[in-house]
Amino acid sequence: MTDALSRIGLRRMTGRDPDESHRVATPLELLFDLVFVVAVSQASQNLHHLISDGHVGQGVLSYLMVFFAIWWAWMNFTWFASAFDTDDWLYRVMTIVQMAGVLVLAAGVHAAMVDLDYLTVTWGYVLMRLAMVGQWLRAAASDPASRPTAVRFAVGITFVQVLWVARMYLLDETAQFWSFFVLVAAEFIVPVWAESRRRTSWHPVHIAERFGLFTLLLLGESLLASSNAMIDALGEGEQIPQLLGLAASGIVVTAGIWWLYFAREQHGRLRSLRAGFTFGYLHYVIFAAAGAVSSGVEVEIDEITGHTEIAHATAGLSLTLPIALFVLSAWAILLQPTLSRAASAVVVVAAGLIAASGLLPVGEYAVSALLLSGIVVVLEVAAVKDSIPAGPARTP
């Protein structure tokens, strides 16, 4: 079988060694991430416009719903690739098909968030997921040891995709809305059910790197969107001091978010199936918050330049709440096990103050930047203390 596959340029898709050295992200994975950031950018931009137009509830809820589709498809591929990446031509083609699904999804984000028409988003999502089914079937055919798990993944994913499509054509709008959350729960259950049969051989260092790289891309998208909005606003020649202060604070906030996320190594904690599920599932909050930061900046720019009629507090909270959510989720998922109770308390209180700073009459972003800087200082002090070796025991 191996000889037959090699003659057509393919490799057996067997589970990779979870302890192999120099396991890093591939160029294909980086391209894959860039395509996903296009969809995140669309979601963030539409969130900005909906909040600025006064449709806060619709904007936030539709953003979270669309972001689920983006995040879940990305994460499932990332975990699969960590265990079964063959990097042959068929694997690449199937991955590119998933990228096409992302672009279809991105094309439907505006209709989904503004008009509540999720048809295009659903088909883009289903295209990505069915391409993933093809990958799992190939793993099942190639690797007898992984076959039971791979078959469970293929069957479970296919079943849920049928329900996603049926939901769009058989249910009314109210039933579609509530069934969304039922199918999200079903998506969550599939990996738990499949991996309970036999754990796939994902690589802890590779997973930690992949999640970190996607966080960097989200921050880059946020910086680009915020910078473009800032340049347009400055071009109008109004409220320049406030806009420059917002820009300076934005640099500090972005640096602070980066610092928090990469303050501690994570791969050492990803040694059990439970740790992997916790790390992956809870990253939804981290990624969604990071993706929403740029929309908050753009709403604040609209408020400063008079391009929105929403309340000042609404604009402020659209800016500070995503930052606070990022801090809290990063603390809970990445930092809390390494911090003392006192340091953890400081981080949690500072996150609450960041959220509340959105209610300030002026300078809310500057206050958030200062508080975030304070959290970074606490983390660095804690790191220094942890690195100091214990002194010799004292005799009484």
UniProtKB/TrEMBL annotation:
<feature type="transmembrane region" description="Helical">
    <location>
        <begin position="149"/>
        <end position="169"/>
    </location>
</feature>
<feature type="transmembrane region" description="Helical">
    <location>
        <begin position="243"/>
        <end position="263"/>
    </location>
</feature>
<keyword id="KW-1133">Transmembrane helix</keyword>
<keyword id="KW-0472">Membrane</keyword>
<feature type="transmembrane region" description="Helical">
    <location>
        <begin position="175"/>
        <end position="193"/>
    </location>
</feature>
<feature type="transmembrane region" description="Helical">
    <location>
        <begin position="313"/>
        <end position="335"/>
    </location>
</feature>
<feature type="transmembrane region" description="Helical">
    <location>
        <begin position="21"/>
        <end position="40"/>
    </location>
</feature>
<feature type="transmembrane region" description="Helical">
    <location>
        <begin position="275"/>
        <end position="293"/>
    </location>
</feature>
<keyword id="KW-0812">Transmembrane</keyword>
<feature type="transmembrane region" description="Helical">
    <location>
        <begin position="342"/>
        <end position="360"/>
    </location>
</feature>
<dbReference type="InterPro" id="IPR010640">
    <property type="entry name" value="Low_temperature_requirement_A"/>
</dbReference>
<feature type="transmembrane region" description="Helical">
    <location>
        <begin position="60"/>
        <end position="77"/>
    </location>
</feature>
<feature type="transmembrane region" description="Helical">
    <location>
        <begin position="118"/>
        <end position="137"/>
    </location>
</feature>
<feature type="transmembrane region" description="Helical">
    <location>
        <begin position="213"/>
        <end position="231"/>
    </location>
</feature>
<protein>
    <submittedName>
        <fullName>Low temperature requirement protein A</fullName>
    </submittedName>
</protein>
<feature type="transmembrane region" description="Helical">
    <location>
        <begin position="89"/>
        <end position="112"/>
    </location>
</feature>
<dbReference type="Pfam" id="PF06772">
    <property type="entry name" value="LtrA"/>
</dbReference>
<feature type="transmembrane region" description="Helical">
    <location>
        <begin position="366"/>
        <end position="384"/>
    </location>
</feature>
